[in-house]
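Notebook entry, structure prediction.
Reason for the run: the old model in the group folder had no record of what sequence produced it. Starting over properly, with the input documented here first.
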Amino acid sequence: MPKNRKEYNDADRKAVEKNFRAKKILVCGTRPDEYNRISAHQFAKKIWEALQTAHEGTTQVKQSKIDMLTTEYELFRMKDDESIQDMHTRFTSIINELHSLGEIIPRNELVKKILSVLPSSWESKVNSITEAKDLQTLTMDELSDDDEDDDNDEVNFRDV
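New structure, fully documented this time:
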């Protein structure tokens, strides 16, 4: 049975204050349509859980999303009529969604994946990149960086 306010000790008061602050932060950060979902909850933890389920889904839904995105990543290919920038944007979107669900792919794997999905017309560029750069440390930003020196232009695939 819950305590009456008169029976609260210092620890109880601190807990109520922390709950109030946490609820205030959560409520202030929600959209009006989300507010209806959480307004009935008394405790910040329940509000957090409701928001988490609404945004991420249940554990089963989250795992399904991860599985779907992982398959999309594994089957990722550059489309025939797609520019490098569009392909990079599409690829980054998949990676960011996986990251938001807690699935992190090592950066060297991302670089290798991008290089492997380029069309055969890019083979000489890919070879230049793999010979000139350390793929274990090369980042996606470095791979697509269009600020390379003119001397190293063969390593930069954005300009083609």
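Summary: The radius of gyration is 24 Å.
The old model has been moved to the deprecated folder.
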